Amino acid sequence: MRRYSSTPEDHLFHKGDWFATQQAWEQKLVASIEAMNGDELLNTSTSDLANYYASEFEFDVPTILPDEIVADQREAEVEVGRRNDPFYDGYGGTRTVTGTAVDVELPYTGNKTGFDIQPTTRNYNNPRAYVASDCLKFSITGINLTADHVRKEVDSRVSSIKQHLEWLTKDAQGYNAGLLALATQTIERRNEKLLKDRSLVAGLGFKMKERPGASETFAAPSVRRKIKPATPKPKASRAPFEPEPTLTSDNYEHILKVLENMVQVMEQSPGAFREIDEESLRTHFLVQLNGHFSGDATGETFNYEGKTDILIKVDGRNIFIGECKFWTGEKAYLETLDQVLSYLSWRDTKAAVLMFSRNKDFTGVLEKISSSTPNHANFKKLVKQRSESSWTYLFGHKDDANREISITVQAYNVPERIEPRIRPLGR
User: Which of 3, 167, 374, 390 has the smallest CB count inside 10 Å?
Assistant: First the structure.
């Protein structure tokens, strides 16, 4: 341990109010997103960008390491003569004598700013220490110090610091948990504004003026983090963003609801579906869907290619894909996801994978779908579990992670085939 004569010990957890600090960090996050180049923002995956900003602004509460404390002793000038000490002269005078100081270094990890912030819970008895880049420093001084006395003083100081950090952790948990939603909302709001502004200028009929891209600005709190993988900033082009047709969320939800209602149809008429194949099942779904949505000249919104696809096309490209498959195992299921992701699609394509199971252990099939989907190379996140047998996931396109595809997987328990019995001749 390095020797030093003294270090200034300030009151910890005393300089900044938690609510004001949190608000300032959230404002910096919003300002960073607002400062992004517009085309880059529009060309970047919303979920990836939101994850990046949530990671950048996450507050890493300090963690002290009492088991790694180091200490050293030195001679120090100690002021004596106060009331109740053996050097008190009865007249209120004080003087200094040579005593002993035990210098303590308490290592920590995390953001050193945390030692300045005042938690929302406090006891008005703030501990004191000097905050270095990787440890807290404080000294125990006195005349005729004993090991027991020093140990009690150190334990008391450590206990007080630990208590304040626990209070700060409770405050930080809510802040950190809300960062992803804040980043997502800010990105989506700016996306909407950018697209609306461009539609406004395009509607004027004038040529769009080309502007040099704005410089990137990323402001984040100064953080000393624990060693962990960094969330890289998503890469995206600054080329002019070209809006593409997309299926609205309301229509997507309505489509999924129609598909989900087919479960009741199968349950009410099991005999009609006992011998049915994938192509015939697809036709049943097409009839239901086209009964709810009207199309163009053909009168049909939904059509198909191949044997199992249910499609909505705009300008020859898919904005909705439905894939009907019988469950034959985890490997085939993941290959079905590959197939859906391989379709040439617009940005924000939406899809549904309808898995029909004649497996007696339908619960086991549901568990396999739930556990194996996150293993797919292009999986990004579970958006929500819609029911016991339905999930909506977000995937990145296989060739461009900034193109995101929403895939809702719905599992159907189809009545098992009844194999005909062959009666022996002569009976």
Answer: 3
